[in-house]
Amino acid sequence: MAKPAITIKDVAREAKVSVATVSRALNGHDNVAAPVRQTVLEVARRLRYTPHAAARSLSSRSTQTLGLVLPDLHGEFFSELMRGIDGVARAHRRHLLVSSYHGDPEQQGAALQAMRGRVDGLLVMSPGTAAPGFLVDNLPALPTVLINTPMPDGQYPVFGIDDHAGAMAMTRHLLDLGHRRIAFIAGPGHNHDARGRLRGFRDAMAAAGADAEGRVLPGGFDEASGHRAGLALLQDGPLPDAVFAANDMMALGCLYAFNQAGVKVPAQVALAGFDDIPLARFVHPSLTTMRISIADLGERATSHLLQLIDDGAAMPPVPAATMVPTLVTRDSTAVQGPP
After folding, report:
1. What is the average per-residue pLDDT within 44-69?
2. pTM above 0.85, yes or no
3. CA-CA distance, 326 to 140, in Å (whole number)?
4. Is-contact 36 21, C-beta < 8 A?
5. Which residues pair with 183 in a beta bridge?
6. Cα separation, 131 vs 150, whole angstroms
7. 3-state class (DSSP) for residue 55
8. Are 227 and 257 in contact (CB under 8 A)?
9. What pLDDT sits at residue 339?
10. Which helix (H) or strand (E) holds 328?
């Protein structure tokens, strides 16, 4: 026969204090003397008492949980983003309820609706370039912060990346090294970040003059599409002077294709990426890229969400916060000296 569950009354009786005192001690309230708090915590630990989350939620109207809805969970970008989010959440004793929708609007809507009553606030990444009306219509009435999500009317705070400026900076770097024929591996056409990076590449190439020749190949922000682009470049005649991939994962896929074919990077073709995922510095040759502090992006968005939850309507609206990527030069674009 199973033992009855330990209740808060059992802890109060054992610690010789009131139920209210146990509740205040376990919830970290200041109006409990340190010796009393220590006694309550020791008794609760010894009895293996676990507060009932649903009951605490009903009494405090707080779930102590943040909702996170992402387009995907695969890849180092999302791993780094979640690392930053989780660090802030844990520091504030919050849990995460995570869902992904794999680019499917219906799944996104279902994930957002499922967050109702389960979380105190939402972090949402929705980089699709379709009209934001669908997203707004499906957002629950909760404090919400958007990440890398186009939202022109400023209805919600948005933490994002200046993709256009970053892509222009990388393209100029390759041009300054003397490369005139540059191929660009683009991201998904519906993706807000991918479109900004493609626009930055095209603008920088147009400003370079008639002797600069650009080529755009399709990609999908994954290693396989970068590998396919690399194979296409190998099969289509003379290689370009440089290849700029719209994210590091595609750059690594392209690098693998070149390595398979015996093409030397950067001796025969320079290669660059975007994002500065942790793996970028550990491949050979190490990858030149545009650095985004991905974990920092998650930290800043989560910290702002917690402020919204704590301050509510008292917090003034915040405009979009845009992070500008910085150029990180490594071996994959290093200028080769004479043999």
Report:
1. 72
2. no
3. 35
4. yes
5. 215, 243
6. 9
7. helix
8. yes
9. 44
10. strand 326-328
Ordered DSSP codes for 288-318: BEEE--HHHHHHHHHHHHHHHHHHGGGSPP-
- Going by C-alpha positions, the residue among 234, 229, 263 that lies closest to residue 246 is 229
β-strands 181-185, 326-328 pairing? unpaired
The predicted-structure confidence for 259-275, as pLDDT tens digits, reads as follows: 999 999 999 999 999 99
pLDDT tens figures, 136-189: 888 888 899 999 888 766 678 899 999 999 999 999 999 999 999 999 999 999
Burial of 171 (0-12, 13-18, 19+ CB in 10 A): buried
H/E/C letters for each residue in 136-194? HHHCCCCCEEEECCCCCCCCCCEEEECHHHHHHHHHHHHHHCCCCEEEEECCCCCEHHH
CA distance 292 to 200: 16
CA-closest candidate to residue 86, choices 102, 100, 98, 74: 98
- The set of residues, in sequence order, having a beta carbon less than 8 Å from that of 31 and lying 6+ positions away, is 24
Q: Are 246 and 186 within 8 A, CB to CB?
A: yes
The average pLDDT across 197-206 equals 98
Residues 6+ apart with CB under 8 A from 77: 247, 249, 275, 277, 294
Is the bond preceding residue 285 a cis peptide, omega within 30 degrees? yes
Specify the 3-state DSSP secondary structure of 225: helix
Angle formed at CA 164 by CA 109 and CA 129, multiple of 5 degrees: 20
Q: Which of 170, 193, 181, 221 is nearest to 333 (CA)?
A: 170
